[in-house]
Amino acid sequence: MATNNERQIAERRIDGEAFVLPAATIAGESLCAADSEVCSRICNAATGETIGWQQHATAAMVDRAVHAAHDALIAWRHTTPAARGKLLRKIAELVEADRARLAAMQMQVSGKPPFEADLDVSDTIATFNYYAGLCEDASAFAAEAVAVPDDALLAERVHEPVGVAALIVPWNFPMVTTAWKLAPALAAACTVVIKPSELTSPTEHMLAAIVSEAGVPDGVVNVVNGGGDVGAWLTTHPLVDKISFTGSTASGRKVMQAAAQDMKRLTLELGGKSALVVREDADVAQAVSLAVGGAFTNAGQMCSATARILVHDNVYRKFMAAFETAVRAVLVAPPQVADAAMGPLISAAQHARVAALVAQGVEAGAQIAFAGQLDPACADGFFMAPVVIAEPAADNVLWTDEIFGPVACVKSFRSDDEAIAIANDTRYGLVATVVTGDEKAARRYKAQLRAGLVWVNTPQLIFPQVCWGGFGVSGIGRELGVAGLRSYQELRHTVGLRG
Ligand code: NAD
After folding, report:
1. Measured between alpha carbons, how far is 375 from 378 in angstroms, rounded to an integer?
2. CA 170 to ligand 1 center in whole angstroms
3. What is the bridge-based pairing of β-strands 387-390 and 407-413?
4. Is the dihedral angle over the CA atoms 430, 436, 442, 448 positive or is it negative?
5. Where is the active site (predicted)?
6. Is 55 in the pocket of ligand 1 (CB under 6 A)?
7. How far is 435 from 283, CA to CA, in rounded Å?
8. CA triple 55-189-81, angle to 5 deg
9. Residue 332 has what DSSP assignment?
10. What DSSP state is assigned to residue 437?
11. Annotated catalytic residue 6
């Protein structure tokens, strides 16, 4: 967070290139914080440069945003699915039209390579289009007859919007994570208050402007900016009916406690420590490619990072040799460098946190088998070369904890029973990958891996039709798919005499 003095420096820099983003956007109006309020620095993670400042909302602004959403609900909840579908389709079109600018902002803030930044925009478009389609089809919103054992009675089931939803998102896939919440919330006729991460809010500001340009009425989508305190004000506000939170498991616990007071509806998308299993019959080249993608995409800052790689003893040496070659070939570089494959960590603090965890793990006995290298252009940003640990102890922090950086651990196994037991030996349960040439074995892994999404011989493909969410401390509920829509709806049944 910046001091008041730093803010004054920032304001002077507005004449240069740094921008100052407003503390909140409420019912179509941008609100700036008074001089005495805090703001945080927005860095270019690839250079360490300050590119802008994010003002933080006050408690009074959060209250005002929630009231705006509450007031807007009166009219919005009575719009037809078809009307909402039209708006969602329009948002998708406007995001597509702004693709280059949105991807450029993702790169400028997070330092992601161009292909990753572009994929974020594509995922955002796909999500809005998917929920537009559900609205256009309308069957997901229609009253359904429920069979009861009395012909004189008519029983029906309807899905009502849950009300005002607080959407709280982290920094690793800004805009995408917001779209996963915003699109189904609008489809369900909820009104929302979004709380982006203060580190990566620029794309959320751009998305909010697009939503407004698409014609979504003022007050339906509001944004409050800031850190955990701003999020906490939202989660305790009595007029918030539903919280959809993506972030760490530690913060998720606090959100769950806050939600308990008013029994707010809750979706939690939290951390992970996922496994990738390479069977004896795997195509080793494919397994290596999936391991590199699963562990080092977005510099490993993925809840779904498959950072625990389990390799059958009979192919272990072959896998490790090919994995080393592949990891050393990952071009860690700023997005401007042609063929950059891996970007930086999001902040100096995240870099320090990951480096400290690696040091702690090594101190406790973990062996670094090999590491990648940084391009010379990485000198100023928050870059870290990929690190691979071989055979860590089962209680080593690098094996047990979510690192959220480019660190992967590899362990060998001798049987499917052993691999499944090791993969499931965690309180997390977000995703898993299995690489095998045997269909029967694949079916066994799909059935027995304790994870919300299991990929077989594929990269981490994500479709808006396929739900996202985890077992155990990886969260509660599911996003995307029809379940994602239902998470913004209350179920109401009616029973009465047939007319
Ligand atoms: P974080 O928990 O620190 O913060 C996430 C968001 O919550 C931020 O906007 C933050 O300001 C806000 N926040 C923090 N404390 C809060 C509180 N007490 N009440 C309300 N809001 C609060 O997480 P992060 O460091 O921004 O993101 C990394 C974490 O997110 C990782 O653990 C990662 O696994 C998880 N994540 C999960 C998924 C998923 O789909 N399961 C996706 C992306 C990230």
Report:
1. 6
2. 5
3. parallel
4. negative
5. 269
6. no
7. 7
8. 135
9. B
10. S
11. no
pLDDT in tens, the chain (499 residues): 343 433 343 443 434 467 899 999 999 999 998 765 689 999 999 999 999 999 999 999 999 999 999 999 999 999 999 999 999 999 999 999 999 999 999 999 999 999 999 999 999 999 999 999 999 999 999 999 999 999 999 999 999 999 999 999 999 999 999 999 999 999 999 999 999 999 999 999 999 999 999 999 999 999 999 999 999 999 999 999 999 999 999 999 999 999 999 999 999 999 999 999 999 999 999 999 999 999 999 999 999 999 999 999 999 999 999 999 999 999 999 999 999 999 999 999 999 999 999 999 999 999 999 999 999 999 999 999 999 999 999 999 999 999 999 999 999 999 999 999 999 999 999 999 999 999 999 999 999 999 999 999 999 999 999 999 999 999 999 999 999 999 999 999 999 999 8
Burial class (CB in 10 A: 0-12, 13-18, 19+), 254: middle
| Residue identifier of the C-alpha nearest atom 16 of ligand 1 | 228
Write down the catalytic residue from 116, 198, 269, 280: 269
Between CA 31 and CA 115 the distance in angstroms is 34
Which residue from 421, 458, 456 is spatially nearest to 441, judged by alpha carbons? 456
Q: How far is residue 141's CA from residue 149's CA, in Å, rounded to a whole number?
A: 25
DSSP per residue over 220-276, as a string?
A: TEEEE--SHHHHHHHHT-TT--EEEEES-HHHHHHHHHHHHTTT-EEEEE-----EE
Query: 407 pairs with which residues across the strands?
Result: 387
Q: Which domains does the chain have, with CATH numbers?
A: 2-270 (3.40.605.10), 275-464 (3.40.309.10)
- How far are the Cα atoms of 112, 332, 355 from residue 383, in angstroms, in the given order? 11, 8, 11
If you search the block for the tokens 């809750």, which residue do you land on?
Answer: 266
Tokens describing residue 273: 């420590």
Residue carrying structure tokens 């959403």: 69
- For ligand 1, the distance from its centroid to the CA atom of residue 453, given in whole angstroms, is 20
Identity at 125, one-letter amino acid code: I
CA of 447 to the centre of ligand 1 (A): 29
Take atom 39 of ligand 1 and give the residue whose Cα is closest.
Answer: 269
Tokens read off for 280: 């004896």
